[in-house]
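Troubleshooting log. The previous run stalled partway through. Resubmitting the same two chains, unchanged.
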Amino acid sequence: MKRLFSFSFLVFSFLAGAALTQDGPLKIEITDGVIEPLSFAVPVFEAENPAAREIASEISSIVVADLTSSGLFREIPKNRFIAQRKTFEEPVRFPDWRAVNAQALVTAAVKTNGSGQLTVKFRIFDIFSGVQLGKGTQLSGSTGAARRMAHQVADQVYKRITGEGAYFDSRIVFVSESGPKDKRLKRLAIMDSDGEKMKFLTGNDNIVLAPRISSDGKKVLYTSWETGFPQIYLLDVETGRRKRVNTPGNDVAFSPRFSPDNKRIVFSYERRGNIDIYLMELSSLRSARLTSSPFIDTAPSFSPDGRKIVFESDRSGAQQLYTLPVSGGTPKRISFGNGRYGTPVWSPRGDLIAFTKQSNGRFGIGVMRIDGTEERLLSASFLDEGPTWSPNGRVIMFSRQTRGPSGAPSIYSVDITGRNLRPLNLRAPASDPSWGPVLP
Amino acid sequence: MRSIYLNVAILFMLVACSDSEGGFGNGSLGADGYQGSGFGQDDVTSSTFFKESIGDHVLFKVDEYTLNEAAKTALNVQANWLIDNPGFVIIIEGHADERGTREYNLALGFRRAQSVQEYLVARGVSGLRLKTRSYGKERPVEICSVERCYGKNRRAVTILASGSS
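Second attempt completed without errors. Output:
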């Protein structure tokens, strides 16, 4: 049911866009419950000056790669194009694009100047309706921001055509891993949503785990063994400076996460082998205990309105998911299927909770509604875990580890419909992704 | 239990004697599983002796943190040695196999360490000497992905450091 709902949403939003402009038939084929990706054509972006040629080509490749990676778009190969466009301003010959079955067309022009400034102008066309979608858009910045500008173009196309929020121009914090399994080195790192522009944020002197980026993308909470014991650290992405978060008693704490306004954190606190969930205000370091069971309560995550948390507990005898108002109360169990449920993460849209499910000896990523209904598994393997949401709540990334002595983790993404499962193209083993916001 | 520990120690001394006198080389204690030459030179009050001869770890079943009989027997020997060697501070390190989510396994490691700590205290080791920590599934001793390895990774290790309690 959920699948059909998503599909019709996509169709509606596109038809609504088309209806505004004209009444031509714009078709998205739905076959056997699979969306036929929307076909689009991107002629290599025009270079308005010779020096811009290389950067124009690079930007258009990134736009194509972004849109294709979503699984909702399919590129028409350039060697099938009939229309040979020479300049950005020349009119679009719609019949030429209809003939190659392009449903959407993106045209753009790129200009550089001697002082390192880059300008990208682009337009989006609905081919079957024969109209431009919205107005043309112009972006400018330094040539060093070329990749970001490409992601912004892709975001505009994606938003215009799907009616959903953007996500390509965003960054992901994760753990970069190296070395053998029993002596693994782990470092925090950050990269663009497509895996490019990777940069280390910490050295590899200590084990670090489960970074969580703030909703403004500026800070990262994580767990490190820097003192010999797992404790929570707060890192500034820009400066790379980190400090330990003084949790109650300066004791052992882990599994931290920010509140949506980044003013408070929730985390697990260990005392005499018992693990409970605490809430702490970062400015005052005032803390409150949210759970007090003699069981393992961990992996808390805020709802987007900041009023509730979802967490995992083995109080029923095995790992299950519970929601709890931050103001207090009795945890309400929401997971009831066969198997164990852990690492819940509330969707930024507020409607779904993603989790790791362990059943029949396999680990998979799934989603359920916040009351636990309509559970769906999106992946399964030897070891999938730790979901994180794209800023628009449409895509989930997670870690997948392979088995055996040479087993290593990598980061995968999947659409919330369960389609388009794919690995991120990374050069080194990576785990524990945490997806940041669309950049300002 | 105390007598078992003493017997083990006496056996080592005997092996040491035969080594130095008769040149028997690699003595083996068979049933006890301890073998190798040079034990005789080891100081029975050293952390190396503790690790190699007393035994520094206990194992757990899948997703469990309660101590089974084998673990209790091993911890009885550990406790006696620790009481006799009060110069060490002790960290109990809990670990899990890779078949669990990261945070849960970290929590499970703490519970395993806590079970060991409570047992050692009940056997007379001062709680002031003891601390616990967990590495979850981050530091396996065996790296294969089958039960043979998992069983060895689900452990709590007693780590000694010099220092007064």
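Takeaways: The longest helix of chain A spans residues 2-21. Chain A has a mean pLDDT of 91.
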